[in-house]
Amino acid sequence: MTTIANFVKEKEFLICIDSDGSAIDTMTEKHKKAFGPQAVNVWKLEEIKADFLQKWDKVNLYSHTRGINRFQGLIKTFNELKAEGYELPEIDQIEKWTEESSELSNPALSREIENNENNQQLKLALNWSRQVNQEISKLEKDSTKVFAGVKKILAEISTKADLAVVSSANQEALLDEWESYDLKQYVKVILGQEAGTKADNIKDLKAKGYENNKILMIGDAPGDLRAAQKNNVLFYPIIPCEEAESWLKFAKKAAAKFFSGDYQGNYEENLIKKFNFILK
Question: 107 lies in which domain range?
């Protein structure tokens, strides 16, 4: 299932799980082999390639904007480099679209281009995003990319909670990965960028009848935390570079606390404090 419309609440608890960088170790590879390099190609940035890719990784992987939407990450990378004195192509029309559109995805961008056929900036952005998806589809599928313990944990918690993948990644890639890695069987719905923002998806899932303290968002990026907080639900952080340890801690202690109602409060606050410190 890839839409919330037909989602039916079956259990008392709901656990939403981010994919890239949280359940599956694909986030870094996608940025280093697809997102950044294709931006260099599309906007012809070969002369500043090393500096651009370094900034791209900082914005999208190694800072408080980790996990940002691809189009917003593009804007932020360009703007930060411009602020540092680099000369880059104009992307003000792309930025305007990201600020005004309610959906930041390829289909939404395609619709915008239909209404603005002469907008070359938007066409470049769509070309880049499509090339990124093509490169991602070529990446090798390797079961070792699933973080240690994830499959077993999903099997266990799916008996107590309805599970939903809530991600800003491309829908097609998500379906392919969760199917390839034999994880799809444990989740009721897989929601990518085409389904809307993470905050909106959590809101719509919550409307199916779950109580706030019985909903948990598991993620590795500040955007996951903000999506949870916007909906007044709980958050469990997957710490970057400590993913396997984070899942082990979840299996040994955090999951039980969540199901028993003892998660909210000091326990959750201390986890979030460490998370924010690492990605400050």
Answer: 27-138
